[in-house]
Design a protein that fits this description.
By secondary structure, the chain is mainly alpha-helical. Helix content is 68%, strand content 0%. It has two helices and no strands. The longest helix has 37 residues. The two termini are 36 Å apart.
């Protein structure tokens, strides 16, 4: 890859659009994993409770 990649149109698109989008998705993935771990830990503490059902607002 050229050291002038950031000066190309593709490089500008990558740094201005693709990278910020990837960072947002990684943050979203991390939040979802934290919620899953919390649910798993809660279920281990109370195994008799039924599994929670996600609502439309929670699915996003």
């Amino acid at each position: 890859m050229s050291s002038d990649f950031f000066r190309t149109r593709m490089g500008q698109t990558f740094y201005e659009s693709t990278m910020p989008s990837l960072v947002r998705e990684l943050a979203r993935l991390n939040q979802n994993l934290e919620r899953l771990v919390a649910l798993a830990e809660k279920r281990e503490a109370n195994p008799a409770e039924p599994a929670p059902v996600a609502t439309k607002s929670e699915e996003r």
